[in-house]
Write a structure and sequence with these properties.
Elements: H1 33-39, H2 44-55, H3 59-82, H4 89-99, H5 105-120, H6 124-130, H7 134-162, H8 164-167, H9 180-204, H10 208-228, H11 230-233, H12 240-245, H13 255-276
Helix pairs in contact: 2-7, 3-4, 3-5, 3-7, 4-7, 5-7, 5-9, 5-10, 7-9, 9-10, 9-13
Length: 281
């Protein structure tokens, strides 16, 4: 070569380099705050707050939530004084058990509007779009249900301990203070059974007006059957466990309470399965 450039090239030609190819897509941009919030998983506490806001979402809902506690406490007090003379512990707890069916009906109506109306008005759709887990959605609604149950049971327990001593027969005295745990257990169990009935109706009937009509119509029918055929109705009465615990059952056996419990828990499971498979759109 003798230091000479190869044929076809000059000695002074600069070396050439291939330029790097530009990226295929547009340059990455910084994520905006709303995009970050959209990708972040919704907390369970936020879901519960949303369900509570839905519970008081309309004017009619707020009216029910204001009137409900008044009706609950006033009717429980009225039933306690309307029972007349109460000589035994069973007589004194009877008003509390009797009022479990009708006293919380206004608050139960608010709950029915929330759950049945979710599917009627498709308000469950945006909730499930934000977080598609139906298990978390059901747990958030269950928190609302349990909160209402605690309030209803607590109010009726307070009436039993405050008003019953005034209404009790003075010769027999107030007898429930000897077994406060029994009183709390009976009312809490009965209140849970009553709200479970409202929950089942609202889950099986995806229409707020239809579910309310069924629930409001069934409650008086249950009371009529309880008075007309108590030994037959007790087998399907949702309050059978509470009546048995309160020694007010017409059958001196735990069998009706077990049969009723299995029936209503089965209906709750069936309604939950139906809601889990229900189309949102």
């Amino acid at each position: 070569m003798n230091g000479q450039a190869p044929h076809g090239m000059t000695a002074h030609m600069p070396p050439t380099y291939q330029q790097p190819m530009p990226p295929a897509g547009p340059p990455p941009t910084q994520q905006l705050p709303w995009q970050h919030r959209a990708e972040r998983r919704t907390s369970f506490l936020a879901q519960v707050r949303v369900e509570f806001r839905k519970l008081a979402g309309t004017i009619s809902d707020r009216i029910l939530l204001v009137i409900g506690p008044v009706v609950l406490i006033a009717s429980s007090i009225w039933v306690t004084f309307a029972m007349g003379r109460m000589y035994s512990a069973a007589d004194q707890i009877h008003p509390a058990v009797w009022s479990l069916r009708l006293a919380p009906i206004v608050l139960h109506a608010a709950l029915i509007k929330l759950i049945a109306g979710e599917w009627q008005h498709r308000s469950a759709q945006p909730t499930l779009l934000v977080q598609p887990s139906r298990a978390r959605y059901f747990l958030a609604q269950a928190t609302v249900v349990l909160t209402l149950w605690v309030f209803c049971a607590g109010a009726q327990i307070a009436v039993a301990f405050i008003v019953t001593p005034i209404a009790a027969d003075p010769t027999a005295g107030y007898l429930l203070d000897y077994r406060p745990g029994w009183v709390v257990g009976v009312i809490a169990l009965g209140s849970l059974s009553a709200i479970m009935t409202a929950l089942i109706v609202s889950m099986l009937v995806p229409n707020a007006a239809g579910a309310l009509a069924i629930y409001v119509g069934v409650m008086p029918i249950m009371m009529i059957l309880q008075g007309a055929a108590p030994e037959v109705f007790i087998w399907i009465d949702p309050l059978a466990p509470a009546l048995t615990l309160a020694t007010l059952s017409p059958i001196d056996s735990a069998a009706p309470a077990v049969a009723s419990g299995v029936l209503w828990v089965g209906l709750l499971a069936l309604s939950g399965l139906q809601v889990s498979r229900r189309e949102v759109a």
